[in-house]
């Protein structure tokens, strides 16, 4: 059922795509459905040019014949469509469960609009139930981890900090060669302040709080797809 709902949300987002658009393509299980549907439209003659947010998405898009470019050549994008690990009533997000948060945020910030597609299980009253991914440089990891731990404790993290993959004996690396620390909050009460404090740490590359970036969300539930708009 969940995959069906994700595809329904993706199908609604496809309706926002217009010929000639410059699109950002998200990463993750829901975004994968959007790329599949976009590939079908391209095969039928839709002309778009796209920037993928991960190597996985790039390979998927290439296999479907979707034309790709990059931000160095395009500069700005008309629209980015991506999934989310969490979204609240103000359309603030936690992203990065798939490890592509840096590229996802760069692409979203370079877009005139961002649409999130999700199933209803991703909607929360307050961000923080899903672990917050924090992308960090490999150099000086110990010092960075200590500084991040101090910040998240000051902001009330309930479950501490884990280096992604270390419990499996194979540390996760992002497409950019960075590491990810996952912070377990339970509830994030001051996301803007937390964002600033994390970015003040030199070893932090970026984090998964996407604040004031999403303008619309299509959320699929068993009773249909709901449209959520920023500020409404």
Summarize the model shown:
The chain has seven helices and 13 strands. It has 232 residues and is α/β, with parallel strands linked by helices. It folds into two domains: 134 residues, Rossmann fold; 76 residues, 2-Layer Sandwich (Alpha-Beta Plaits), CATH 3.30.70.
What does this structure look like?
This protein has 232 residues and is α/β, with parallel strands linked by helices. The chain folds into two domains: 2-123 and 211-222, Rossmann fold; 132-207, Alpha-Beta Plaits (2-Layer Sandwich). It contains seven helices and 13 strands. It has a six-stranded mixed β-sheet with strand order 2-1-3-6-12-13, sandwiched between helices. A four-stranded antiparallel β-sheet has the order 8-9-7-10, covered by helices on one side. Strands 4-5-11 form a three-stranded antiparallel β-sheet, with no helix packed on it. Helix 2 links the parallel strand 1 (22-25) and strand 2 (49-52). Helix 1 crosses helix 2 (29-43). The protein is globular. The two termini are 28 Å apart.
């Amino acid at each position: 059922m969940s995959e069906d709902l994700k595809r329904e949300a993706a199908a609604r987002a496809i309706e926002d795509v217009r010929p000639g658009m410059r699109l950002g393509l998200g990463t993750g299980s829901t975004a994968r459905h959007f790329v599949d549907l976009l590939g079908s439209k391209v095969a039928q003659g839709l002309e778009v040019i796209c920037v993928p947010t991960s190597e996985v998405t790039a390979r998927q898009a290439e296999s479907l014949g979707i034309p790709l470019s990059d931000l160095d050549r395009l500069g700005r994008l008309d629209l980015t469509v991506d999934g989310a690990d969490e979204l609240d009533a103000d359309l603030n997000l936690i992203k990065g469960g798939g490890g592509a948060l840096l590229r996802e945020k760069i692409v979203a910030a370079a877009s005139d609009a961002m649409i999130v597609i999700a199933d209803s299980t991703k909607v929360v009253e307050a961000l923080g139930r899903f672990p917050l991914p924090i992308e960090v440089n490999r150099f000086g990891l110990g010092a960075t981890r200590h500084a991040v731990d101090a910040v998240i404790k000051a902001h009330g993290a309930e479950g501490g900090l884990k280096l992604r993959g270390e419990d499996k004996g194979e540390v996760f690396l992002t497409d950019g060669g960075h590491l990810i620390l996952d912070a377990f909050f339970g509830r994030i009460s001051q996301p803007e302040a937390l964002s600033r404090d994390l970015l003040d740490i030199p070893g932090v590359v970026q984090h998964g709080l996407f604040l004031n970036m999403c303008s619309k969300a299509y959320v699929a539930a068993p009773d249909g797809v709901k449209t959520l708009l920023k500020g409404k």
